[in-house]
């Protein structure tokens, strides 16, 4: 098997593995096992216990905290990760902007031309670099 074929095979296997690990969308009326991972409104959750998501019971991951635990993801930016117009940001996500670190206060899209940068939009961002954590690159 040539090098190109091996690389292609590894990429295909990696893609299949990633699909197998990806959270499936939450659906009403389905049985969930403890530890099963789902996606709901752009966030991932893990079932705390086995249960049936009964139709009409409103047992979705956002409404039923006793059944679902949000998956905590590392939302801190890599050094040099910075705020950009046109990107979607999730509540709790960290960005750097002009040498300071900010945390998103709500899910939003930084609409191009709206000037919703962290310094100009305090309803969307809060500064979190209080001298106790390293500042990120400009």
TrEMBL record:
Residues 129-138 have a biased composition (Basic and acidic residues). GO terms for biological process: carbohydrate metabolic process. GO terms for cellular component: extracellular region. The keyword Iron-sulfur does not apply. Keywords: Hydrolase, Signal. Pfam families: CBM_5_12. GO terms for molecular function: carbohydrate binding; hydrolase activity, hydrolyzing O-glycosyl compounds. Residues 1-22 form the signal peptide. Residues 113-138 are annotated as: Disordered. This is Chitin-binding type-3 domain-containing protein.
């Amino acid at each position: 098997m040539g090098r190109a074929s091996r690389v292609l095979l590894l990429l295909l296997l990696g893609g299949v593995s990633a699909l197998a690990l990806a959270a499936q969308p939450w659906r009403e009326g389905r049985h969930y096992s403890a530890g099963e991972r789902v996606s709901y409104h752009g966030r991932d959750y893990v079932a705390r216990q086995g249960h049936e998501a009964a139709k009409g019971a409103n047992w979705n991951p956002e409404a039923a905290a006793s059944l679902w635990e949000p998956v905590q993801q590392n939302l801190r930016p890599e050094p040099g990760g910075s705020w950009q117009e046109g990107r979607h940001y999730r509540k709790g996500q960290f960005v750097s902007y002009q040498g300071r670190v900010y945390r998103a206060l709500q899910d939003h899209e930084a609409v191009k031309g709206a000037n919703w940068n962290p310094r100009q939009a305090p309803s969307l961002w809060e500064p979190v670099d209080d001298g106790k954590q390293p500042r990120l690159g400009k």
